[in-house]
Please model this.
Amino acid sequence: MAMASLARRKAYFLTRNISNSPTDALRFSLSLTRGFASSGSDDNDVVIIGGGPGGYVAAIKAAQLGLKTTCIEKRGALGGTCLNVGCIPSKALLHSSHMYHEAKHVFANHGVKVSSVEVDLPAMLAQKDTAVKNLTRGVEGLFKKNKVNYVKGYGKFLSPSEVSVDTIDGENLVVKGKHIIVATGSDVKSLPGITIDEKKIVSSTGALSLTEIPKKLIVIGAGYIGLEMGSVWGRLGSEVTVVEFAADIVPAMDGEIRKQFQRSLEKQKMKFMLKTKVVGVDSSGDGVKLIVEPAEGGEKTTLEADVVLVSAGRTPFTSGLDLEKIGVETDKGGRILVNERFSTNVSGVYAIGDVIPGPMLAHKAEEDGVACVEFIAGKHGHVDYDKVPGVVYTYPEVASVGKTEEQLKKEGVSYNVGKFPFMANSRAKAIDTVEGLVKILADKETDKILGVHIMSPNAGELIHEAVLAINYDASSEDIARVCHAHPTMSEAIKEAAMATYDKPIHM
Model:
């Protein structure tokens, strides 16, 4: 199959810029008032509740499209969970802990001898905090650059066009707007009978700020966050045990990749108790006692730890918004229901990111935000949730986009599989990081790429070639016929593509 034609690419970009008839009535009045009494107004077009990745990106994009915009954020620092207590600080600690682990266990293999390596935890946490502070200030700078009005406070609906804001300064404002976007993100999902105190029983937020390295850490939940935070503290010296109710870690991951991934984590001394249910917890003593039993019932076992991390997923954060007051519909999980234009059932009210169905990922929320304001501005917006990449930032990383092999079998799709191990990749051999592989799934008849899964260092960077290919409906032959620089880790993607429709060269 030949590479995607120039004509097809032009057609794609034309569809991206399809514009409906411009709306003449987009300007509306936004009032900032004290104590619900009007004290003047400015013409604005969009009000956004929430300044996380979805909210702040939507605000900036709206301003760039010429819409006067206000963003309301309760935290007093932009970036949401992701930037303040999620994606960014966790990646800082993952990197710092990996550097320590490399210095202690790997440097000598490369002729670098270090007589003594110690962890300075306060310095490590300070570096993390500095990164967060600089980035949040950077987002605030982008607001100023793009003339986005920023209100620091907790917002809730008075009507479909009015938001009451209790500011962090103790005042009350009413923000009026024609288009209001809910972008309040998600919160930690709690478990029955377990009270998070952020000291001995912690959420991911508390796990980012432990003042001592626990001797024993139990992680409840074998998803992305639990495995990442378990990796951080495991590298620094904690004995880590992961308790998971399901039969597998990261259940949504491709099965073949998942098995190799679990073996890799077990080599790093991470222990797993799968098909296991938590039935009780006792934190009255110096540590924590966790009572568990088989998921299907059976003999109870008591586990002891210094710290327990509850990482059983996240839930939409919509409490206190008074959505029911204006009649916004939600599903049983509390997610706001929207149509393809991110509109709720209430005219003028929209929702994006973690509060709506779809992957709970920061980059998905950003795409939601851009598309939503494009629709508001009378343009064309689009997000395909089947083409959103996911990454586990452990070592090695695991990155995926598109379908898993299990999904294709369930859907009855005939497909070809191409795999290439990094053991056969020259760059990986040269730098002694040969663990992992690239796996490509393509339609058996058309060769269209349906899914790509990578396990390797920096897989989160490598995956984007596959994301681009899937978004352009490329074939495995398309990737195979693209010249890749040598020696690079990305050559493994080319070789896996060759293995999908024909045969690889270097294996």
